[in-house]
Amino acid sequence: MGVDAGTPPGLGERIRQIAADEVAKFMRSGLLRNASISGGKGLTVKGGGGITVDGGALRVRGLPAAQPGATGDSTVYMGGITPALPDGTLQPGLVLRREDGTIALALYDPTPDNTGDGFNQFLALYDRAQVIVVSDDTASGQGLSRPYVPIPVTRARYTDMVAVTDSAFVDVFRTPGAFHKVNARARADIRCTTDVAGTTGEVRVLVDGVQVGDVQPVGFTVETKYVGPFAIPGDAYTTHSIVVQARRTAGTGAVRLDAAVWGVQS
Fold first, then answer.
1. Does residue 245 contact residue 172 with C-beta atoms inside 8 Å?
2. Taking a C-beta distance cutoff of 8 angstroms, is the pair 109, 85 a contact?
3. Which residues of the chain have pLDDT under 50?
4. Peptide bond before residue 83 is cis, with ω within 30 degrees of 0
5. Residue 69: its pLDDT value, please?
6. pLDDT at position 87, please?
7. What is the 3-state secondary structure (H, E, C) of 225-261?
8. N or C: which end of the chain has fewer CB within 10 A?
9. Whole-angstrom Cα distance, residue 19 to residue 27?
10. How many angstroms separate the Cα of 63 from the Cα of each of 25, 94, 117?
11. Quick count: other Cβ atoms within 10 Å of Cβ 190?
């Protein structure tokens, strides 16, 4: 009866090394330069890795143009875009399109060769009519460019402000009907005074009929009282009311006030 020859020492390790060398050669060979993935679950990068594109572009294509409502344009494109930079190279940018081909989001500079303000890319959200509805102000480097946000103003002369002589709190300013919650919180700026020495009063703010913040005292000095920031209850775009109230607590004069309310971040 024959006896099987023993496994040569180190054979398993040698096989693993050969396999590792062949995989390394494959990765260096450039065979993935024009690879595509069809069907399946796509490409997943695990273990803290990533995808690096040097000098090219990352493109996610939408539905073929033959399908109703589709154009065949890229849904997402990240890479070099026009207009080109002054040296002729494409500027790095981002374009996100809807299924109908309209731009939904873009990061680029439409005039990268403008020597007046240099190369300043902005990030913009577009509506379906291709009008910018939200964008950062890239010229200044801070804040919003769109939309234009109204800035409240109040009466400069206290004698022109609303006068309150009631001893109980009364509504002086309120949102016209209900407003839709956009910011998570709000702040009320109340410019107030009394118009006769020795007269005092108080102002406060209600949200949906519930007081928020502290009652603010009013004396014979023009001051701005700040109430908040206070939370607006409910989910985004639910409707609410804000009311500014005032009352006289002593004296024979009137409590005078004007107010502005701002939506602020949480």
1. yes
2. no
3. 1-3, 65-70
4. yes
5. 45
6. 86
7. EEEEEEECCCCCCCEECEEEEEEEEECCCCEEEEEEE
8. N
9. 13
10. 36, 19, 39
11. 24
Which of 180, 201, 185, 182 is closest to 250 using CA atoms? 201
- Which token pair is 56? 């090219």
pTM for the predicted model, two decimal places: 0.73
Residue with tokens 């494959």: 26
pLDDT at 66: 45
Q: Which two tokens stand for residue 178?
A: 């209900």
80: enclosing H helix or E strand:
strand 74-84
Helix segments in the chain, DSSP class H: 11-28
Residue 258 CB neighbours (<10 A): 21
Residue 36's CB is within 10 A of a number of other CB atoms, namely: 5
List of long-range contacts for 68-76, beta carbons under 8 Å, 24+ apart: 69/99, 69/100, 70/99, 70/100, 70/101, 71/99, 71/100, 71/101, 73/97, 73/101, 75/99
| CA distances for 113 relative to 81, 108, 145, angstroms | 14, 12, 21
Beta strand 210-218 pairing with 242-250:
unpaired
For the chain, helix, strand, coil in percent to 5 are 10, 40, 50
